[in-house]
Amino acid sequence: MNPLLDKLQPYPFERLRTLLAGITPPSKYRPISLGIGEPKHPTPQFIKDALVAGLDGGLAYYPITAGEPHLRDSIRRWLMTRYGLAVDANTQILPVNGTREALFAFAQTVLDANAKPYVVFANPFYQIYEGGALLGGAQPYYAPCDPARNYAVDWDAVPPEVWVRTQLLYVCSPGNPTGAVMPLPEWKKLFELSDKYGFVIASDECYSEIYFGDEPPLGGLQAANKLGRSDFRRLVAFTSLSKRSNVPGMRSGFVCGDSAFIKKFLLYRTYHGSAMSPVIQRASIAAWDDEKHVVENRRMYREKFARVTPMLSEVLDVKLPDASFYLWAGVEGSDTDFARELFAQYNVTVLPGSYIARETGGANPGAGRVRMALVADTAECVEAAQRIVQFVQNRP
Length: 396
Known about the structure:
The chain has two domains: about 5-40 and about 295-395, Aspartate Aminotransferase, domain 1, CATH 3.90.1150; about 45-290, Type I PLP-dependent aspartate aminotransferase-like (Major domain) (Aspartate Aminotransferase, domain 2, 3-Layer(aba) Sandwich), CATH 3.40.640.10. The chain is about 40% helix and about 15% strand. It has 15 helices and 13 strands. It has helices at about 10-20, 45-55, 55-60, 70-85, 100-110, 125-135, 160-165, 185-195, 220-225, 240-245, 260-270, 280-290, 290-315, 335-345, 380-395, and strands at about 30-35, 95, 120-125, 140-145, 150-155, 165-170, 200-205, 235-240, 255, 325-330, 350, 350, 370-375. The strands form three sheets. The chain has an eight-stranded mixed β-sheet, sandwiched between helices. It has a three-stranded antiparallel β-sheet with strand order 10-13-12. A two-stranded parallel sheet has the order 1-11. β3, α6 (about 125-135) and β4 (about 140-145) form a beta-alpha-beta unit. α2 runs antiparallel to α12, α5 crosses α11 (about 260-270) and α13 runs parallel beside α15 (about 380-395).
């Protein structure tokens, strides 16, 4: 067996199942889960229709790993519309089977374990970053976040001796779990560090289309273009349809950026057998080509957060995020006790913040917080919030 597998920690949802095992909540409350970031809004009918239509001939041949030209061109048009970017659909875009798989696989493409590299990412973080680093033979470095700045990453706290051995930096904007969006000066700082030390930046942007202000979140490629880096050197962005179009089961997204890294990633994926089904590709084209359903999806999240956030802010340390569909709430005492007792008394599931962070310097930055995914419909989320308010008010 690969000995590196022994370095992986249990996935947060496995830990959550263990935490809640053996508990039988009161039957008067229907179960409501805010624990997993799995979109629950209805999948648009036109995407389902395109998926069914794709069955006609779509299963009769092996797909190519680079994806069909029509899909890559659809993605190219979306990048132009959304970010004002002019990219080469043949050399700078690669369809992937969801960003989770691609974020992990990209580390295996980039990392040279012989150099004893670091992979840097925020703490708390999306667990795939750690898994990709460890199985790529690298050492994770958990960059601290500043609660006073909505958990923005303190990149200045990463020492030069770490940067000099860093081969890959994962960034997530809008962030998971905090929803923080990186501004242009922060991107400029990271590009300058990349130029100085030579590491690659993997920009996870799967929450980019769910936001609450008037301005959409700045993307990594967009930031590079604004700063005169139109070749996207040492930068690859990862984008998904799962949250944007409510199709998590389709496993469809793309990567775009530095053509040299896209070329190597394509080579890796060709051997890895990671081609996207033609059926999924055709449904993906329909999704990328339409923005009306994205606007409606964003409206539903805005309505939901506008109703739920004020309720919870009366009893918890929580505020409206910049973007994404999470609330990152501070609680009194242990986050695991809070999650277990809330489930036991009110049948509402939330994720302890300590499960998506690692202890550094004697402290876990996720401790004392819980992540709530407001992915269900508005009525269900409001009901969950009402139960949480009652739980906190009655809690000793």
